[in-house]
Sequence to fold (374 residues):
Amino acid sequence: MALKDNEVREGLEGVVAFESTISHIDGTVPELVIRGYDINDIVNNLTFEQIAYLLLFSELPSANKLADFDAELKSLRCIPNSILEFLTGVPGNSQPMSVLRTAVSMLGSMDSGVGVPDQNSILLKLKTLIAQIPTIVAAQARIHAGETSIEPDLSLSHSSNYYYMVTGEIADEKTLNAFDSILVIYAEHEINASTFACRVVMGTESDVYSSVVAGISAIKGPLHGGAIDGSMNMLKEIGCVENAENYVKDALAQKRKLPGFGHRVYRAGDPRAHVLKSMTLELANSRNNSKWFDIALEAEKQMANLKNIIPNVDYYAAPLLYHIGFPVILMTNVVTSARIAGWSAHILEQHGNNRLIRPRAKYIGKSGMKIQKT
Fold:
């Protein structure tokens, strides 16, 4: 439906701001298509390195190109000592996403070529952030646990090294497949709030780091990426399967929104949630601990019966990440460490065909006021 003159769409719902070749959501099917490939096909066949390459270069890599790209990302993994010192020195009660936001801003302040506007320079900076944000998040996880941060292992894949830097262990096959799938699933999701924030800042011809900091600031919110933390905290509050029914009923009676349920675009189900649901069950069974899955399943049933509201991607990603070993307080950071790949594609696209993003507001304030001189 076309917009009428001066028509307001709260939250810009349904407003098409620009053309893009990166991804598309059809909430009625439902489907998520990235560079022409369905998300289910992507999750079943691509590693994080491959989806990152696809996002950056608009095509799947050949074996040789993938090897070169993988080697380049590995060479960029290590972060400056000053960043590690900062991460170690922040107060223990600091909000982890705020710390990540500052760390990325610090990286920008140390980049002498931050203002170089050519596409190749921007691409290198984005590759560096794709490689380094997981290193920062892993260091945060170690420091949060009272452990010493672990340097990247350049012999390991992106996801395997990430897991190793967090746990100090090499992931078994099931764990690694689950973790890599989470990173792939969260890598890109069309024009969500954080992606839009990245594009708005890049549209002003600001720098890459400012754009990514804007994305981090947006995804931090509980109505966006922060919902994954809330999902796991909710499951822990429920505590056991037997409590799920009353918990959901009480929340609905108090008109509280339950984290991990509902979506602005997906009306017929979130295809990413379906994939993660089966993975969560598989990993839980492999560890003989289905407690969190069982609670999530029962709460999902209650929400379906009482409100007919579907779970979104965060709902089952939360217990899956919890099984893998990430503390709840850092789950949004993990989402960010994957979404940087999609943000990078959008930043490149905005830079390559830029027009300042400048919406208007419908004024509903007073008029005709006069200043009385005294």
Summary: The chain has two domains: 37-220+336-352, 227-324. The mean pLDDT is 92.
